[in-house]
Specification:
Elements: H1 2-16, H2 22-33, H3 51-54, H4 58-66, H5 90-101, E1 129-132, E2 137-139, E3 148-153, E4 160-168, E5 175-183, E6 212-217, E7 224-225, E8 230-234, E9 239-246, E10 253-255, E11 258-263, E12 270-278, E13 283-284, E14 291-298, E15 303-311, E16 316-324, E17 330-336, E18 353-355, E19 360-367, E20 383-384, E21 395-403, H6 409-412
Parallel strand pairs: 8-12
Antiparallel strand pairs: 1-11, 2-10, 3-9, 4-7, 4-8, 4-11, 5-6, 5-9, 12-21, 13-20, 14-19, 15-18, 15-21, 16-17, 16-19
């Protein structure tokens, strides 16, 4: 009787918990959360488009989602809510783990969702305009390469509003990161640069902050895709300037990076601008496991906060953003308690956050320059601000939306008070 009871109990459990299969249960989760990177030509080292491609990685997927290493998302859930939250809900984690634990069955292909429609080579769909470096850049097998800049004239004869933009490195093996800036006509930034040639500014020269940010590429970074009614302005006659950070890997290589734009369908009500609360005057002592660096930026006109992007290098430990309003009230915007240099993520507030004129964006970061930091290149040396990964940075980048007719410079500089009849 006992054997019969146990058999019936097992049968009941099997009936209550249908087998998890790839096509019915797993593939929809991969489409929603993973395939933007896990497909041919993208940053991830393996593809999750098909059962055949995914099956060998079942146990690795289980480990990654249970540890919450994947999908990468580092925001403290108790501080702020974000529209682009990549973290998996617990029921989804359970499905992926159960699939691996029960043999990673394929199931019925007829139950699979329709394949995702990807445009080969682009996440923004087919761009309206593509600009590409005119010649290959030769990356040596060894050595340190200073940040190198490339000029790509847009050839635009009229102002253009950009809804979407995406930077595509030609060779991910040697492109550590890149930033595409806009240089407007008449700018005196990088005066020696010429189309078709890599340009390295003199040591201590401008590192790119005289250009307006358009889009970047780094592990985990995404294309610029703005909601309708918001766009980035490229003025007629502007250049796109690539700031390229190349790293050598023991094998000589070539790179030819490109960028794609999609135009806004109509003139927007709001223009999007990237700003930064930053500090470059720090010195991190050798061996210090918790060195604090603060920064502040006061916004000079009303704007709406649209995104937050913390940036440090290999010693980065944690990063916080907060807004201090003219009323004196303080709002915690973002807390990244475990910063990971390998993933340069943006965090988009789920609801609009108005930043009235006079609001301070304050950032606090900590750095671990001790031997306990396994990523630390040299815990015996003090560390200062610098471009290379073994140096450090402290940038609290943030994007804002503001009246399309407003000059972004008005956000950064307080207007002079007038007197008399002016």
């Amino acid at each position: 009787m006992r054997f019969i009871a146990l058999t019936l109990c097992a049968a009941a459990i099997a009936t209550a918990a249908p087998q998890v299969t790839f096509h019915k249960d797993v593939l929809p989760l991969l489409q929603k959360n993973c395939q933007s990177c896990h497909r041919p030509g993208e940053a991830a080292p393996m593809s999750f488009l098909t059962y055949k491609d995914t099956r060998p990685w079942a146990k690795a997927i289980r480990t990654a989602v249970l540890s919450k290493k994947m999908p990468p998302w580092f925001a403290d859930p108790h501080t702020g809510k974000f529209s682009n939250d990549r973290s998996l809900a617990q029921p989804d984690i359970d499905i992926l783990a159960q699939w691996a634990d029960t043999g990673a069955a394929e199931g019925n292909p007829k139950l699979a969702p329709a394949p995702m429609a990807f445009v080969d080579g682009w996440n923004i769909g087919k761009p309206d305009v593509v600009l590409e470096m005119p010649v290959d850049y030769e990356v040596p097998a060894t050595g340190t390469i200073e940040y190198t800049y490339f000029q790509l004239p847009t050839g635009f004869t009229e102002d253009k509003w950009i809804q979407m933009a995406e930077a595509r490195p030609g060779n991910r093996a040697v492109v550590h990161h890149l930033i595409a800036f806009l240089r407007e006509p008449g700018s005196n930034w990088l005066p020696g640069i010429k189309p078709g040639e890599g340009y390295v500014p003199k040591k201590g020269g401008n590192n790119g902050n005289s250009g307006n940010w358009l889009v970047g590429y780094a592990p985990g970074a995404r294309a610029t895709m703005l909601e309708p009614g918001r766009a980035i302005l490229i003025k007629a006659g502007s250049d796109v300037i690539f700031q390229m950070h190349y790293t050598t890997n023991g094998t000589a290589a070539k790179d030819r990076t490109r960028i794609g734009f999609s135009f806004a369908k109509q003139p927007p009500a709001e223009r999007v601008t990237m700003l930064a609360s930053t500090n470059n005057k720090f010195v991190i002592p050798a061996g210090d496991a918790n060195y604090r660096v603060d920064s502040t930026f006061t916004i000079q006109e009303d704007a709406i906060l649209t995104s937050l992007v913390p940036h440090m290098h290999l010693r980065g430990k944690d990063f916080r953003f907060r807004a201090v309003y003219p009323s004196g009230e303080t709002q915690e915007l973002l807390n990244v308690p475990n910063y990971d240099f390998n993933w340069q993520l943006a965090y988009d507030p789920a609801t609009p956050i108005l930043l009235p004129k006079g609001t301070r964006i304050e950032c606090t970061a900590h750095f671990d320059n001790s031997a306990n930091n396994r990523f630390n290149p040299d815990p015996k040396s003090e560390v200062r601000y610098g471009d290379q990964s073994w140096e450090e940075m402290m940038f609290g980048f943030f994007t804002v939306a503001h009246d399309a007719k407003m000059d972004p410079k008005d956000l950064m500089k307080a207007k002079k008070k007038t007197t008399g009849d002016d």
